[in-house]
Amino acid sequence: MVKKSPVISVTVDAVVFGYAKTEGVSVLLIRRKYPPFKDEWAIPGGFVLEDESLEEAVKRELREETGISVKYLEQLYTFGAPDRDPRQRIISVAYFALVKTARFMALKADTDASVAQWFNITELPALAFDHKHILEKAIQRIQAKLRYEPIGFELLDKKFPFSDLERLYVSLLGREIDRRNFKKKMLSLEILDELDEYARNDGAGRPGKMFSFNKQRYTQLQKEGILFEI
Amino acid sequence: MVKKSPVISVTVDAVVFGYAKTEGVSVLLIRRKYPPFKDEWAIPGGFVLEDESLEEAVKRELREETGISVKYLEQLYTFGAPDRDPRQRIISVAYFALVKTARFMALKADTDASVAQWFNITELPALAFDHKHILEKAIQRIQAKLRYEPIGFELLDKKFPFSDLERLYVSLLGREIDRRNFKKKMLSLEILDELDEYARNDGAGRPGKMFSFNKQRYTQLQKEGILFEI
DNA sequence: CCAAAAGTGTTCAGGCTACACCCATGG
DNA sequence: CCATGGGTGTAGCCTGAACACTTTTGG
Q1: Is A48 part of a structural domain of the chain?
Q2: Which of A16, A203, B56, B78 has a CA positioned 20 to 30 A from the CA of residue B91?
Q3: Which of the listed residues B129, B147, B165 is the one where a domain comes to its end?
Q4: Which residues have a Cβ under 8 Å from the Cβ of A14 and sit 6 or more positions away?
């Protein structure tokens, strides 16, 4: 028996994470311009075109809707409940993306704030469709992944003080970390380069030394079967 | 700008894992009856119908094509390269499934062996479409998952001797395990019940005590934040 | 009695956790 | 000189890895 394929549309959606020292980890959302769920907040995304890959579709939609371009992009999960869109049967392949602090800041100038906006992950608004569900899954995934892959660095600038890295982990994991133990473990992985540079001092306190993630070294260690784990 | 959704079909595919004491871990494949890739081996699957969920589609296709029904089913990854099917644009949501030994045996009687057949994961044939890629991803996933979730039990009978569990891990991870350390760790998790029963002795050797997985207890421990890790 | 498979404890090393005081800077 | 944030070491505990002989059964 050969079956006919029914009419099902395919979209991609992207949960974009950003980090800023003062605000912790945030997610990029857009305000919908058209029904259904007009004027409600939603994860950016849209239909996949006939001759583009899923990843290309995500990158295109992010460019069109928010103006940002991401470097780290990973497939999250595919949502396909028959009633998840009131108009028609739509299956959504969800991704999560990480952007560096610098780009994160850039958005604030570039984009009309009423269309695309960052929300701290602890203060999320109501969301259209099943997007709340998608976002929860994305947060779960990034929390889990943070502990066995060095993805945190994708959210930081190239050079960062150690305290930034620590704050990022605290913000994402939602609990305190012992500074000494964290630094000891992180340095023992030998994937950080200590630079001869100090953070600019904005306000008070001793300026911290800058570090950078040594991706080459990480790839090398990975090949040798040595794992990142925190 | 509102975009029209292009014509893209959605299929589901399922990598079904089974385990038998004598043969180790195997995968269920079907021989294709129609072009493209006629007479080649493929992962079972097919088109998603308009009003069924993705999981329902997987279960239906497995029933239709192989006669088995699975209990454990988990989404693996969605494959959507524009050229992955020579006929038209098709996006496939891949799942992996685990079946208990008993059902695994049942198939051999039920099904025409030239249509559906088990293959040991170390002796796989060439596969249609990008199914080799899908299968590799599934094996990676189950190997990783085995170490932090008690999914191995889904492949065993309700009651099993400890040696079966050990053989399963050896077969899936592809390396030897120290029996004493493995048993110590497994028992320390307190998710196994030791029964007052012994394995039937087929051949030689001392009969082993039977155990069963205490799922309730596992769920309880999980709630308390205690993790399975092996 | 021989072959096959199951059962069982100890030791050592390395990693994880807990914990508190000093230092550099700006205001 | 005070407030703020960064930098640093040690000791106890626990977990994971290595390792070999005895017991039960069937043939």
Answers
A1: yes
A2: A16
A3: B147
A4: A43, A44, A45, A58, A61, A62, A70, A73, A94, A95, A96, A97
